[in-house]
Amino acid sequence: MEKLINIMKSDIEELHLNRKISRAKELSEQTGMHINHNEYPSYFFGDPQAKFVLVHLNPKQQDNLSDGYEGDFKFADFDEYFKFHRYYGKIHYGEHSNKTLKSPFDLKQIRFIKPFNVIEFNDTDGKYSNLEKVIDNKLQLELLPFGSSKFETALIKGDALEPYIETLLDTITSQKREYVIFCGKVFESLLKKYIISKKDYEFKLPKVDGSAAKNNSRFSKIIINFNDKEISAGIAKSFAQQGLNMSAYGEKCCHLYNQ
Q1: Secondary-structure percent of the chain, ordered helix, strand, coil, rounded to 5
Q2: Which of 4, 125, 135, 184 could crosslink 129 through cysteines, CB 3.0-4.6 Å?
């Protein structure tokens, strides 16, 4: 995690000094895909030492076309910024929060992660306790920490993302993990040079109402070699599929991961 923390510190210090992050601006110019160089990035949410890791492409943000960060800074320093992301669940859903946020995405994560039995969810304690746990008791990593309204995969060519992939894998392998799940089919190509074994699965899941889904769902079990370390992982290719029975999908992915 040391490498990631050093990068984070450098980016946040630059943002506070110049109101922009140069490497974000350079990547945007290199690829033609807009990413925000003038907003706070999000590298991770939750516990850096967690046994369960969920990886996404980048944070969802409105595209900001201004030259630099506008207005007063949200965080006084790096420590405050870091704690916000480490305890994001507690801040937004904890006992002393105002509980005005109830993100559908975070509720979706509960349904997906619950079958893995790595977080002790409380079925009788209401949703807010579980929402806090699903964020703070796992590690969520973003391949690109810089936000955008959409991730334009077609614009990512060559090795533009290689430094970000290396940092991502370095962070994952810095601790012993039980489960590492990459969310989205695009990770199959992004991680291609590191994947030494892959088994693909395709299956139909029941809908929430019990009827059969029309579309197939997909999951891949992979082994990654990075810096002579081998890690088992999964690619949840259907994670973003609309209308997916996320509880059933999580259960199926857990079963395939462990078999």
Answers
A1: 40, 20, 45
A2: 125
User: Do residues 168 and 75 touch, judged by C-beta distance below 8 A?
Assistant: no
Spatial CB neighbours of 244, under 8 Å, sequence gap ≥ 6: 205, 213, 217, 238
CA angle 51–128–5, rounded 5-degree value: 40
The one-letter amino acid code at 19 reads R
The radius of gyration computed from the CA coordinates of the chain, to the nearest angstrom, equals 18
The number of CA neighbours under 13 Å toward the Cβ of 175 is 18
Tell me the one-letter amino acid at 113: I
Question: DSSP labels for 173-231?
Answer: TTS--SEEEEESTTHHHHTGGGEEEEEEEEE--B-TTSSBPSS-EEEEEEEEEETTEEE
Q: What is the pTM of this model?
A: 0.93
Convert the pLDDT of each residue in 215-228 to its tens digit. Answer: 899 999 999 999 99
**In whole angstroms, what is the distance from residue 189 CA to residue 217 CA?**
18
Kindly report the number of other CB atoms within 10 A of residue 199's CB atom.
11
Among positive and negative, which fits the CA dihedral 7, 185, 29, 159? Answer: positive
